[in-house]
Automatic annotation (TrEMBL):
Membrane topology: Lipid-anchor; GPI-anchor
Pfam families (UniProt xref): UPAR_LY6_2
Statement: the UniProt record of this protein carries the keyword Membrane: yes
Keywords linked to the UniProt accession: Cell membrane, Disulfide bond, Glycoprotein, GPI-anchor, Lipoprotein, Membrane, Signal
GO biological process, one term: positive regulation of canonical Wnt signaling pathway
Protein's UniProt keywords contain Cytoplasm: no
SUPFAM superfamilies found in the cross-reference section: Snake toxin-like (SSF57302)
GO molecular function: acetylcholine receptor inhibitor activity
Main location: membrane
InterPro entries: LYPD6-like, Snake_toxin-like_sf
Name the UniProt record assigns to this protein: Ly6/PLAUR domain-containing protein 6
Amino acid sequence: MSSEDGLREPLGYRERRLQGTRYCFSQHMMKVTGESVSVTKRCVPLEDCLSTGCTYIKHEEYKICTSCCEGSICNLPLPRNTTDAVFTTLSPLNKTQRLSHPVLLTTACLWLGLMSQRWVTLSRVAGPDS
């Protein structure tokens, strides 16, 4: 497999690079008149789709609308307003999904930190001779 500039990518590189990118992201920047300024479309992981909608940049007089969808070539229409700028999936996202390793690690560290603070506080209250 080779890229457009003629350089060869390592075997499996493209597959690893696209792994976990099952959602189609679209970002549409427009002037207040509705004229398109720029469009960005790419495959992204779930985390990049958690904030969809439209934002107004008043000092530059732009509106940026972001949408995400799950499926093959699902992001053909451009998001132009809050009705279009949504996150659509083929199936409901599982809220009981297993937590990722960074979330579990952070939770464990916070819990250990709180427990160690409690232990230090209890040992001070009990005194050194207890």
